[in-house]
Design a protein that fits this description.
Number of strands: 0
Order of helices and strands: HHHHHHHHHHH
Strand content: under 5%
Radius of gyration: 19 Å
Distance between the termini: 36 Å
Structural class: mainly alpha
Number of helices: 11
Length: about 290
């Protein structure tokens, strides 16, 4: 009974999908390896070493260089998720019960991949502290807000900006646990999760229709993925690049952000920005 009610709850539906996607092979990005690879074309070894040990902002890497590296990653992930989505559309109607849930997990997995890559380029800390399957509550909250930005929710934009401001002021190398799990940011996380969960329900049905006819469904599926994934990634990129955390900083003493003293974060929760694109549930597994 309770499990059935949980599955009908949009917030719970999104949380389950997010955790499931985070457990897929290849979804979690190794921060050091990614920064070294993505910056190798543009930066000296000394700058890369400092970006890894501290942050790209602390290394003084110009934003235009980070933007080029971010665009490289967006192109790469968009191409992969679109190809996998098209492949998932090939079986047709008889395979819908298997392909649509797998498509959703794969799409979320690639959203997680690009969210991590963009976060690391724009000086956010490591989002996954270990190699286990579990995802801690603070990471869940932060990823939910990143997804909210990608979906175009104004409340998520404000909340991510507040978290970035907190961390920049306290020079934190970890996410602010209290703010994201029971502080002023937490109610926004819950409302954003509920909004995305509701969108998942509507768009999964639309995606099922697009997959009903083999070959044609594959073309539609791949095209829809390309048309939504890239703008959503670009939206997150712009927001992170403009945040306080991405601004260049000098040498500082590192602490962990825990306490938050803001009196309020946002007045409304889940209204998407006018330019927000519709969500499409995609793919089978991340590569």
């Amino acid at each position: 009974m309770n499990q059935g009610k949980a599955s009908e709850n949009p917030e719970s539906r999104f949380s389950v999908a997010l955790v499931s996607a985070a457990r897929l092979p290849g979804v979690r990005i190794h921060r050091e390896a990614y920064l070294r690879k993505s910056l190798a074309r543009y930066c000296s070894e000394d700058d890369i070493r400092k970006a890894v040990e501290e942050t790209p902002a602390a290394a003084g890497i110009p934003l235009d260089v980070l933007d080029r590296a971010a665009n490289d990653s967006i192109r790469y992930e968009t191409a992969k998720v679109s190809a996998l989505s098209a492949a998932a559309g090939l079986p047709g109607f008889m395979a819908l019960p298997a392909t649509v849930p797998a498509d959703l997990a794969q799409y979320f997995g690639h959203m997680l991949r690009i969210a991590q890559k963009l976060a690391y380029l724009y000086s956010w800390p490591d989002l996954f502290s270990d190699d286990g399957d579990d995802v801690d509550d603070a990471t869940m909250g932060m990823l939910t807000l990143f997804f909210g930005v990608m979906f175009g929710t104004q409340s998520a934009n404000v909340a991510v900006g507040k978290v970035a401001e907190m961390m920049a002021k306290q020079v934190a190398k970890k996410l602010p646990q209290k703010a994201l799990t029971k502080g002023v940011i937490y109610p926004v996380v819950k409302k954003v999760a509920a909004y995305i969960g509701a969108e998942m329900t509507k768009q999964t049905f639309a995606k099922s229709v697009s997959k009903a006819i083999p070959v044609v469904g594959a073309a539609i599926s791949g095209t829809l993925t390309f048309a939504t994934y890239r703008p959503m990634s670009k939206r997150l990129k712009k927001h992170l690049a403009d945040s306080e955390l991405a601004k260049p900083k000098g040498p500082v003493v590192v602490v962990e952000a825990e306490e938050v003293h803001e009196s309020s974060v946002v007045a409304h929760a889940e209204n998407p920005a006018p330019e927000a694109t519709a969500f499409t549930a995609e793919g089978s597994r991340s590569v």
